[in-house]
Amino acid sequence: MVRQAGAKEVHLRVSCPPTISPCFYGVDTPTRKELIAANQSVEEIRKFVEADSLSYLSLGSLRRAVSDTDANYCYACYTGNYPTELISVDMLMATGR
Ligand code: SF4
Question: Is 76 in the pocket of ligand 1 (CB under 6 A)?
Fold first, then answer.
């Protein structure tokens, strides 16, 4: 659309790291299978969106932006490291809890 509007180049900057894991804490994200960054490299994503360049904010830069100096914030959607044990809904249903 941007090119159709006359842009000669498209440089895409994303204000967070690539989202590689779903959120289980309330943000409605797709499954890992549906998350493009979970399955493709930045270069592959750049080609997919047909941008001339693509860059994401690094995790370190995000942490500095939110003044996180003691790693207490959740970054699971960017790292795949969840701060809590994940519980399977199917397993809960099977146990009647
Ligand atoms: S940082 Fe944690 S709580 Fe926030 S969207 Fe990502 S996984 Fe969910």
Answer: yes
